[in-house]
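DUF3175 domain-containing protein: structure tokens wanted.
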Amino acid sequence: MAERARWSQQVTEGSNALDLEAGVFTLDDPHDIALSLQRSAERSERRKTDPFRSAMSMLTFYINRAGHQLSITQRERLEQAKDELRSLYGRPRRRP
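Answer:
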């Protein structure tokens, strides 16, 4: 398990991912999470794609890596943050 933790930490810190604000995924408001990801994506010089895709990829990566450790409430908040992120970038929201 420690290998997996190191692997995801390496991806977060050393890949062409975003430089995230501390505690972004623990914020209570999905809109605040989306705004933080937007700021990080637009400031980042490490990304290889457009800011929207970078921000959405990092959010999805976090959800997938956290897996079953996320409570239902946390997972719902992060899924709502995806819709907020889409809204910030003028992208259509996903249908339920």
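The radius of gyration is 13 Å. Residues 24 and 36 are 7 Å apart (CA to CA).

Cheers.
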